[in-house]
Amino acid sequence: MKNGQRKHLTDATGVLDKMGRKEFEKELAKLQLELVRLQTWVRAKSARVMVVFEGRDTAGKGGVISRITARTSPRVYRHVALPAPSDREKTQLYIQRYVAHFPAAGEIILFDRSWYNRAGVERVMGFCSDDEYERFLKLAPAVERELAVNNGIILRKYFLDVSQDEQRRRFEARINNPAKHWKLSPMDVESVRRWWDYTEAYQRMIKATHTPEAPWHIVPADDKRRARLNLIRHLLDSIPYKKVKVDLPKIPKAQSRPKGATADLGAGQPIGSHY
User: Around Cβ 232, how many Cβ atoms within 10 Å?
Assistant: First the structure.
């Protein structure tokens, strides 16, 4: 195909077929190698990278972050998913607890939801006042510009979007899968019921905070696998990193076994062999 594009089958409506697992894992492995190269470059250049993942509930924010961190160092790629603010944090400047997690040299911070909670769930569910909401929309672009971008931080913002029908299907799948029950909360159910309230909130949020310095990148996510690959590919393409030569260690010759020494640890309780 031209421009490196792959040919995919479409259904009668022109919609791409869902990507198969085998193809996904093959392409993901290539991207994960590049993520490691990005990691090496960030450390070598003492760069600072910050990635914001926002989107509708069930859109796959955590899933793409887990694929990014699966083969990388947690000392470089740091996953930040803050809980609800404590009583003390509620008295701070709103942005304060997020700024504390901004990257130092050689770090890539992955925000699994961010300060944009104020323009999303807090706005829709009434957890902030109208004045607080309006002030946030006014100040957020300035904060991102002055505290991040103009301070040398590479900032990327992604919004993962799913259709109403797909969101409902994914919630139903979570209800039917005990391994995913931890992902469910009463707030999630509200996001289904208040779909159009969230739509309006996200539309205004993106319009007000989409700036030349920190634009929003929209990720269609009805096909989770394609969404993950497309987002990671875009992230890699957007950062001017280069392959850095790594001085790999050589495996030394092991020392000679001392007289009378045994490899048995001698103490402790071995676990049972169930597999």
Answer: 20
Decide if 53 contacts 64 (C-beta within 8 A): yes
User: Which amino acid makes up residue 138?
Assistant: K
Residues of the chain below pLDDT 70: 1-15
Cα separation, 110 vs 52, whole angstroms: 6
Could you tell me the CA-to-CA distances from 244 to 36, 37, 70, 176, 190 in Å, in that order? 10, 7, 21, 46, 47
Report d(CA 245, CA 227) in Å as an integer.
Answer: 31
pTM above 0.85, yes or no: yes
Write out pLDDT tens, residues 114-165.
Answer: 999 999 999 999 999 999 999 999 999 999 999 999 999 999 999 999 999 9
How long is the chain?
A: 275
**Number of H-type helices and E-type strands within the chain:** 9, 5
Residue 217 is classified by DSSP as E
- Whether the CB-CB separation of 233 and 31 falls below 8 Å is answered with yes
CA distance 160 to 211: 18
